[in-house]
Structure formats: C-alpha cells, structure tokens
Write a structure and sequence with these properties.
The chain has no helices and 21 strands. By secondary structure, it is mainly β.
Length: 206
C-alpha cells in the first residue's frame, strides 16, 4: 500500500518500530511517499509518526529530520540532510550522503559514506566501515573491526579488534584510537603530526 503525505519541506519523521527492513531516501520534492503492506501513520503538523510490522520504503524531503526508535531488520538511508537519530537496529545499517548521525546501538554491520556533520555511535556489535566525514567521529564501543578513512574532524574510537585508519591530519585536531588487536595507520608522506603510541609491538615504515 502506498500513501502520500504533505508535511512541508522540513518535516520531522518519527519511526517508532519497523518489524522488517527500512529503505529511507531523501528527494527534492516536498511530499513524503510511504510504502508498506502493514503500517500505522499519524500526522501532527510537520511531524509524521510511523510504525510497521513489515518492510517499509520511505521517501522524504532532503531537509527532513529523522528519529528512529527501533528497526528489527536491515536499513538503508540515503540523502537525508536534516539529521538522523537512531536508538537501536538489529540488522545491518548502510548510510550514504547525510548530515549528522547519532546512534545508540547497532547489532550487525554498519557502513557510512558521506556525512557533512558529526557521527556518534555508543555501541556497535559488529564491523564498522566509515568514509568521508566532514565533522567529528566518536565511537564509544566497537565489538569487531573498524575501517576509517577521510575524516576531517576529531576522532575518538574504542575498538575490541583491529583498526585500519587512513588519516590526513588536520591542524588543531585530536585523534584518539584504542584497539584490542592491531592498528594499521596510513598517513601521507608529508603529514605533520605528533604520535603517541602504546603497544606490545610497534612497526613504522616511512
């Protein structure tokens, strides 16, 4: 079933629970297009609250802000620039071309490419891959491996396993990386940075 909702160009999308997978994309229009076989939708001005026991496909204005309480399946989020806050997701999460992202808990793999704002994750239970972030990156706990590349803000991460970090240090920024296993750090040949290293074994190649 499809539903078209008019809530302006900067709506507030509240997703209470998705029982299946979520596909969420931003577009240049000013309406919301909702597709699901089993959904409950309530509108109050520019706020739209959605829940479903099934899969949901959602197209929203690019400047929409999104709050998500829980997703039982996988999720794909693309091109939403109003800010994203996610409490918990059980499946894989893929995010592309967004602004700021704040996540409490991810139970499976996470991938992000292209964020204009900051990224904050409290708890990730599997692999994390992050690339092309203009703001700061804060990962309080990653249970598996982390791949991090092209972050232009500060970095603070705690990882239980391996870290692969491609870093071009910016003046005034601070990069703090703690890993339970190996850290591979790759920097440009003429990078200007002060490194403080603490490990059982350290290998440096110039």
């Amino acid at each position: 079933m499809s539903k078209t909702i008019s809530a302006g160009r900067t709506p507030k999308i509240v997703i209470e629970n998705i029982g299946g997978d979520l596909s969420l994309s931003g577009w240049e229009g000013d309406t919301i297009l909702l597709k699901s076989d089993d959904e409950h939708c309530v509108q109050n001005g520019d706020m739209v609250t959605i829940s479903s026991d099934d899969d949901v496909s959602l197209r929203v204005p690019r400047s929409a802000s999104v709050f998500i309480q829980n997703i039982e399946g996988d999720a794909s989020i693309r091109g939403v620039m109003g800010g994203i806050e996610l409490k918990e997701i059980q499946g894989d999460l893929s995010i592309r071309d967004v602004d700021s992202v704040s996540i409490d808990s991810i139970q499976s793999d996470f991938s992000l490419r292209g964020a204009k704002g900051h990224l904050s994750i409290k708890n990730a239970q599997s692999d994390v891959s992050i690339r092309d972030v203009d703001g700061n990156v804060s990962l309080e706990s990653v249970a598996d491996d982390l791949a991090l590349r092209d972050v232009r803000g500060n970095v603070s991460v705690h990882v239980d396993n391996d870290v692969v970090l491609y870093l071009n240090p910016q003046a005034g920024n601070v990069y703090s990386v703690t890993a339970g296993d190996d850290i591979l750090l790759v920097m440009p040949p003429k990078a200007n940075a002060t490194l403080t290293l603490n490990a059982d074994e350290i290998d440096i190649e110039w």
